[in-house]
Write a structure and sequence with these properties.
mainly beta, Neuraminidase, 5-stranded mixed β-sheet, 4-stranded antiparallel β-sheet, 4 helices, 7% helix, globular, disordered N terminus
């Protein structure tokens, strides 16, 4: 396998509050891209019965040895069968409804119901490992991105009946006496390991002292963050977890890492992407995605307040596509014709969106499936939740309603919005499992047969 040098300039996450209105316009700040100058972070001590408590407990030599055994030869070059220009590759991506949308016979199951003590629940991921389903999500007191927000998880043998939620990492207190925050950045299963990527940080105490909410800065986007780390936690038995090596912030962190048909592992981030030819998901992540200049140009040309929360897939012509939320009516996209090595400029697609995260998966029959809320409302209504499929990766002309029942939040807050927020999905056997938050309060899973998408 050819080893490549890490790009000198890494386009990092642009983190925006998801309750920002779709039509709001804020000044783009370059510093947000490079707020974290160090890409590797020191270990943090953790106290929990089933967690290895120090990163130093991990034998890095052993881990690296294990990784070598799972290395895969991924092609550095794939044959792309297209005559489209870079702009046409993006503008050709569309979602259309021929004859309306069918309602799927989708079952639904509650993972975590309303709890007045922990009434903020959002950003969920689901995966399947050794006969059980695992769900991970953000749990907080009330408002999004407040001190004390942490990663919770639940387990199910059948995807229907879920265990009581547990704290994956107990809430830690920093040296200033403030509670720190943690969030899941995706999950991945490979070679007998279930991995969950966890981001942890604390707020600068000056930010909290000068805010209207003592647990949350008035502007969490620009707030200075301390001890900002990203680690891959893994388990081989579903019970005992080890804090693996710290993961460089090379662009991933928005969706689950996915092995695309090209054979390469891609991890979609916010405006950047990470890829690896080491399929273990624990090491050798390389920076990829559009450059900072390309992002800035798209923001200026589209008069956009943001580009963020991307998802990646491979079309039938072997082009890799990275689509991003723009907080407008349409997703914007960049494409790669060389398996993620270089990326085109960013252009508006003809794929509508209601200002939130979305997901793409490759179905067993070769079609590409989208999960999200494409019905633009302009105020983050995020309903109905839709599955759409495409034969070629460009025209998503078959749409199906997964859920369309409204939910009213029981405990209002500034960030409580969106009937079906931040969906994430997996395919397990004949079924698709979609996890999402209802008004950022309740975590729920819907299940349907992917063969019904006809």
């Amino acid at each position: 396998m050819i080893k490549k040098q890490l790009a000198a300039a890494m386009v990092l996450c642009i983190v925006f509050l998801s309750f920002t209105g779709c039509n709001s316009k804020t000044e783009f700040n370059m510093d947000n891209y490079y707020r974290d100058k160090n890409y590797f972070y020191p270990p943090q001590a953790v106290a929990s019965d089933n967690l290895t408590t120090e990163a130093s407990d991990v034998d890095d030599t052993k881990v690296n040895s294990e990784l070598q055994s799972s290395d895969a030869e991924s092609p550095d070059y794939i044959t792309v069968n297209t005559t489209r220009t870079d702009k046409e590759l993006s503008t050709s991506i569309s979602i259309t409804s021929n004859g309306g949308m069918k309602k799927l016979a989708a079952e639904k199951f509650t993972v975590y119901d309303y709890n007045p003590e922990w009434s903020f629940n959002h950003g969920a991921y689901i995966n399947y490992f050794k006969g059980k389903f695992y769900a991970f999500w953000q749990m907080g007191y009330l408002n999004e991105d407040s001190c004390g927000q942490h990663v919770a998880y639940s387990v199910s043998k059948d995807g229907k009946n879920w265990s009581a939620a547990k704290d994956f990492i107990p809430v830690k207190v920093d040296r200033y006496g403030n509670e720190m925050l943690s969030s899941p950045f995706g999950t991945y299963v490979h070679d007998g390991k279930l991995i969950v990527y966890i981001s942890e940080f604390g707020y600068d105490p000056n930010e909290l002292a000068n805010s209207s909410d003592p647990k949350r800065p008035d502007n969490t986007d620009s707030a200075k963050k301390l001890n900002n780390t990203l680690n891959a936690w893994y388990t081989t038995d579903g019970e005992n977890w080890t804090k693996g090596p710290s993961v460089p912030k090379t662009g991933g962190g928005n969706r689950d890492p996915k092995i695309l048909p090209s054979g390469r592992l891609f991890w979609a981030g916010f405006t950047g992407i990470a890829y690896s030819d080491d399929l273990s998901g624990l090491n050798n992540w390389m920076a990829s995605g559009p450059s900072l200049d390309q992002v800035q140009n798209a923001l200026k040309q589209g008069n956009l307040s943001m580009l963020t929360e991307g998802a990646v897939y491979q079309s039938k012509d072997n082009v890799i596509h990275f689509l991003m939320r723009s907080n407008t009516q349409y997703l914007w996209a960049t494409s790669s014709k060389d398996n993620g090595e270089t990326w085109s400029d960013i252009y508006q697609t003809n794929f509508t969106d209601d200002c939130q995260k979305f997901d793409f998966l490759h179905l067993p029959d070769g079609r590409i499936m989208y999960i999200g809320t494409p019905g633009y409302t302009g105020y983050n209504f995020r309903m109905p939740l839709v599955a759409a499929v495409s034969e070629d990766g460009y025209t998503f002309d078959k749409q199906f309603i997964i859920r369309d029942e409204p939910y009213t939040a029981k405990k209002g807050a500034s960030s409580k919005l969106g009937n079906y927020s931040y969906p994430s999905a997996i395919i397990n056997g004949d079924y698709v499992y979609v996890i999402y938050a209802k008004q950022k309060e309740v975590i729920e899973v819907s299940k349907f047969k992917w063969t019904d998408l006809v």
